[in-house]
Design brief:
CATH superfamily of the largest domain: Ribosomal Protein L25, Chain P
Number of strands: 13
Radius of gyration: 26 Å
CATH class of the largest domain: Mainly Beta
Distance between the termini: 79 Å
Length: 211
């Protein structure tokens, strides 16, 4: 099913965009390789509902003023640093047959033995990876299976990711994605003390039984 987003051309720019936001309208821009920039506006309520359903990595049919749809990706969403409200959107216009670069988020799955049995903590060095591919080959996320991390020496690198052959990773393949950090010395000390206290309690119980 095609994802369709209807918008309107925008005349206001700069400080004038404040009045748009007060009236529930989001300013946005469409740009791309070899295409003219287009200033547009979108109803905030409609976009938030749309974005919640589609996410950031879906290919969209953008309609401006009831014109012919153009293929776009949501390139960037700017938010107010205090209120965390969306205040501006960047759309990247796609050209047919032209590869694009895009960030794909990493989805950490599985259960690590080093976390479950050795009380380690998952350390994420990166949360997304930059890729290059045709727009129709873009995927929303890449799974990282941490079940292979059985001890503190195990590491998952970018080169270990399983992704389709039509997607090229642009980051360095020897970059570390994640490791398991051992518990802090204080935590180890507490664990040892708890074990020691437990042994003392067991010993005292045995002595009581003898009596």
């Amino acid at each position: 099913m095609d994802l369709i987003l209807k918008t309107k051309s925008r005349i206001s720019t700069g400080k004038q965009n404040r009045s748009l936001r007060k009236n529930g309208i989001l300013p946005a821009v469409v740009y791309g390789h070899g295409v003219e920039n287009k200033n547009i506006e979108i109803e905030k309520f409609f976009f938030q509902k749309f974005y919640k359903q589609t996410g950031a990595d879906s290919l969209l049919d953008l309609i401006i003023d009831n014109q012919k749809p153009i293929k776009v990706l949501i390139q960037n969403i700017q938010k107010d640093p205090v209120k965390d409200n969306i205040i501006h959107i960047d759309f990247y216009q796609i050209k047919k047959g032209e590869k694009i670069t895009h960030l794909i988020k990493l989805n950490f799955i599985g259960e690590s033995k080093a976390i479950k049995e050795l009380n380690g903590s998952l350390v994420k060095n990166i949360n997304s990876v930059e890729v290059k591919c045709l727009p129709e080959d873009l995927i929303s996320e890449i799974n990282v299976d941490i079940s292979r991390l059985n001890n503190f020496e195990d590491v998952i690198y970018l080169k270990d990711l399983k992704i389709p052959s039509n997607i090229e990773i642009l980051d360095k393949l020897d970059e570390v994605i994640t490791v398991i950090a051992p518990p802090k010395r204080e935590e180890v000390k507490i664990i040892k003390e708890e074990i020691k206290e437990g042994e003392v309690e067991v010993k005292e119980e045995k002595e009581t039984i003898k009596q």
